[in-house]
Design goal:
Elements (H helix, E strand, L loop, with lengths): L1 H20 L16 H11 L2 H4 L14 H6 L1 H9 L18 H12 L5
The structure holds heme C (HEC).
């Protein structure tokens, strides 16, 4: 019994050590927010989350176009409160309608804005 207890303790410590040794970037579910670019990162989020489907030159809901770099950059100060469901907005402006981006996607867009919206 005593041996089994010690074995379990060692196994536990090994797992703990393995976890703490991993850098955040190595973990499969880590959210990477460094070096965000419009072409490489923002475009995919906006297309995959349906934003571009409702906000393009043919169909610009709320007069917002999000299918190109210049327009996304110009609208970043409206995009951030809309995706964060900021309390200053009425809920019909929470984007996307009826849902919310993942925290990681929100963090990526915020980081891109903080970095000066690089293309
Ligand atoms: C199903 C269509 C649809 C989708 C999908 C959609 N939007 Fe919208 N969006 C709208 C409509 C409609 C409005 C106008 C809301 C209003 O003013 O009442 C709007 C308004 C906005 C506004 C202006 C908010 C303001 O302050 O006036 C922004 C910014 C915006 N959307 C960004 C986004 C982003 C980013 C996404 C994706 C995460 C997204 N939208 C997805 C339909 C959509």
């Amino acid at each position: 019994m005593k041996k089994a207890g010690i074995t379990m303790l060692l196994v536990g410590l090994t797992i703990l050590a393995a976890c703490t040794n991993n850098k955040e970037e190595d973990l499969p579910n880590a959210c990477i927010t460094t070096d965000m670019k419009y072409d490489a990162d923002m475009k995919n989020i906006l297309v995959n989350q349906g934003c571009v489907g409702c906000h393009n030159s043919q169909s610009a809901n709320g007069n917002i176009v999000l299918d190109n770099y210049e327009d996304v950059k110009a609208n970043i100060n409206k995009i951030l409160p809309a995706i964060k469901h900021d309390a200053s907005l009425s809920s019909n402006k929470f984007m996307p309608p009826g849902g919310q981006l993942s925290q990681c996607e929100i963090d990526k867009i915020q980081a891109w804005s903080n970095d000066g919206t690089p293309q």
